[in-house]
Structures are given as structure tokens and as C-alpha cells.
Amino acid sequence: MQIQSDISLLPFNTFHIEASARYFAEVKTFDDIADLQAQAIFKENKKFILGGGSNMLLTKDFDGLVVKISIPGIELEREDLHHYYVKVNAGVVWHQFVLWCIERGYAGIENLSLIPGQAGAAPMQNIGAYGVELKDVCIGVEAINIHTGEQVTFSASDCEFGYRESVFKHRYKDEFIITRVHFRLNKVPRFNVSYGDIKATLDEMKVFDLNIKAVSDAVIKIRSSKLPDPAELGNAGSFFKNPTVSFEKCKELLDKNPLMPNYPQSTGDVKIPAGWLIEQCGWKGKRVGNTGSHARQALVLVNYGNATGHEVYQLAMDIKQSVMDKFGVEINPEVNLI
């Protein structure tokens, strides 16, 4: 393992933002982490733990050590009458893990197909799509304390998963390196096809014998039709989280906007799609300099080429303010701002 100096982070973020790291190291084994923690550069500099770079916006150069996690490996630990128990190392590409499970008939994450990024970052965000979240299948997370080198195992309840939230995103931000995630997957699928366009897409695909591969294929087809490929157009997927408002606020908004989509929650609050709010403010497909809101999905901010992180950030703040001005609703970034 080598520590490099003044490394461009352009190849390591899906927004395709040019920024540099003062120091950069890629770890490919658990021993690499221990070796790195023993070095003075690790001890004396602030650290940023980098996975697939798919859910972040670099707004400036990083004056410290960027640690790229590239530890491979997936393993079936055990099984019982109803479940498979699988551990996956942090450097595994998430979609490759999904496909690995589908090939073996391990059910539970097929709705999470084609989500960019690595497995190690999945618990941080509690990734989710089409009615399924990581918390539904994750039973534990292994991590190393950045300051002490201690190996810690977090149970699912320890992770305090919420809507695109976990303890790793706030309370323990910059405190741990996630190294491995444990999953409990189903032998008998529990299909969730009522969310979004999955059922209609399955019908269009003429799928009559429902199976996890068909659900995955439908999700891939939907995501591919709505979301730009980061390899072709810089983006980090959905930039904002869907806001929740009180029942009273929702009623007030519906009085003025009767066609507004809304989703009552078990808490009594109501979730409103951020993409709809942004679109109503006229941002969908609008380009501002080198950045803009995507023409097929207003929730996705894109880099049309040579945009700076500050340009994307300013666009996001302008969108956030316009939604507040028009609807009195606050939308907040899902993307991590670095």
C-alpha cells in the first residue's frame, strides 16, 4: 500500500468534479488498514473515507488524507430454514452484490438493483428504493475506529437506521471505517412490486411468473429510463431527500395543489416527493451554466461538463430556496457535501 500526494479525485466521484487530495491511499485488505493507521500521515491529518464516490459532492480540495476502500469479497456464512446469512466486504460494488444474490436465489435486495456505490457506504445512507431499504435486510455492520484501531460490531439497532440516515452519518461521522456488512436474505421471496412503476413495467415485460430476477430487471429498466448514467453525465443520483410535513401542512398544500402526490406515514406525517416540488418550481430540465436539473428527473442535479462543486452547490441552494418560497417546505440534500 502506498500513500500518494496531490492526487486528483476526478476519477473517484460520479459527479465528475475536479478536486484534489493532499494525500491519498487505497486499502485492499484489512491488514492495509492496520498498516495505514500506524503511519504518521494517518495520525496527523484529517481523514475522509471514500467508497464509490456516488453520493457526495466535492466543493473544494481536501487538505488531508483520503482513504479509498477497495476490500473485495462476498461469503455465505450460514443458512437456516428460512434465511441465508451473507457477509460482504466494504469494497464490493453494490449492484454486483445484488446480482450475486439474484444468481443464487437470495431474495430481499432485488428492489435495490442498480443503485451506484459500494456495499460499505450502504449502511451510512440506509440506501433504499422502490419500497425497500437496507434496514430491512441488514443485521450488522463491522467497523474500525479511526482513532483507536478498535474493531467494533454494530447491530442493526445500534445503527439507528432512518430515512437515508444512520449513526455513521451524524453521531459517528468521521469516527469509523466500515469494513463489512452482514445481511439476512430470504429463501422464499416477499415481493414488493406496488411501489412506483414496477408492476406496470413487469406487465409490459410480460412477466407472469414473478421471480426476483424479473423484479430486478424491471427496476433496472425503470432506473435506466429515468436516471442519467454517471459514466456519461456526472451526477450523484437523487440530490435531495423527500421531505415529510405535518398532516395539517399537507392538507393546506392539497387545497392549493389537489394533484400533489403524497404518501401518509405511520408517524402521522406525510411524505411529499421532492422531485415534484422541484418540478413545480420550474427547475426540471433547466440548465444553469455547466450544471442543471435533469430533463427526465428533476431530483437529479447534473454536471454537463467542467462544473465546479461550488456551482452545483449553489444550484442546489437556489432550488432549495425556491421550494421554500413557493410551498413553505424545506428540502435537504441526501448527497454528502464535502
- Level-2 CATH architecture of the largest domain: 2-Layer Sandwich
Shape: globular
Q: How much helix, percentage-wise, in residues?
A: 25-40%
Q: What is the SS-derived class?
A: alpha+beta
Give structural notes.
The chain has 338 residues and is an alpha+beta fold. The chain folds into 3 domains: 3-69, Uridine Diphospho-n-acetylenolpyruvylglucosamine Reductase, domain 2 (2-Layer Sandwich); 74-186, 2-Layer Sandwich (Uridine Diphospho-n-acetylenolpyruvylglucosamine Reductase, domain 3); 234-337, Uridine Diphospho-n-acetylenolpyruvylglucosamine Reductase, domain 1. It has helices at 30-37, 40-44, 94-104, 122-125, 156-159, 198-204, 212-226, 247-256, 274-280, 309-327, and strands at residues 3-8, 20-27, 47-50, 56-57, 62-69, 74-79, 83-89, 128-129, 132-133, 138-145, 151-155, 176-186, 234-238, 244-245, 263-264, 270-271, 287-288, 291-293, 300-303, 336-337. The mean pLDDT is 92. It is built from 10 helices and 20 strands. Helices cover 27% and strands 27% of the residues. The chain is globular and about 60 Å long.
